[in-house]
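Predict the 3D structure for this chain.
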Amino acid sequence: MEQSDREQARRAVGEGGARLVRLLREGDPAAQVAGSQWRVADVASHLAYVFRGFTEAAVGNSAQFARYVPDEPDFHRRLATVNGALVQELADSAGDQQSAVAIGMVEEGIAGFLAATASLDPEAALDTPWYGPGVTRTTDTLTALALGEILVHGLDIARTSATPWPIERSEATVVAREVFARMLPLMLTDAGRRAEVSYRISWRGAPRSSPDLVVRLSAGTVTTGPAGPGERVDCRVLADPVAFLLVGYGRSSTWREVLAGRILAWGRRPWAAARLPQLFCRP
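Done. Predicted structure below.
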């Protein structure tokens, strides 16, 4: 991540986190979140442990979460199990105060994460056992993941309460570049393991100097990185970063964004763009 992106991401986590806390405090904790089995209080509980987990990873204390991680090779099922266990634990311990306790933890967790990472090497390898045995993620990646959680779950809660929740293109670009470049190799689905296809993704509105992201799937593995000189791919994608973020996190569909003109595809296999979300689970 470039220094300017890093500074923007940290600023957006702080400002977006404050906006998220206000939204949570104004919302109905018992309201069912659209498209989810969780209530608003459960989303707050999930976020509370996300930021606590990231903070503990930053200070070298993430091993305390290992007991929640099942012996499950599938990325999505493993994360769902960890999230479910932590949300239920807070609901059981806090009772009627679940939402208030969770919101306090969210506010504390965001501040703690920013403080813990302020002087860390951006490329420091931090232990993140919930992503798999021995898996580490960098400070930059956890910062982008934290911002993605704020933007996407803030949108979930805002949609539930019919409250505006604008997502800035610049913020979505930082998340899309860092999160998808670093996390996709962990997130292959069965369809992704069978795929033989390559993509080159460009971000609408990004500076011309901004690197594209090339995603290559072959022989059951995926590699990501900048485009090589003259490198050919099967499918070129030009995406509005907000649209790409929402598709990647399962809050919109590729076809909806294509029909709206926010995602364009061309190349030898342009139809492969519609299949891209099926190749990976959510981050």
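Residues 196 and 218 are 5 Å apart (CA to CA).
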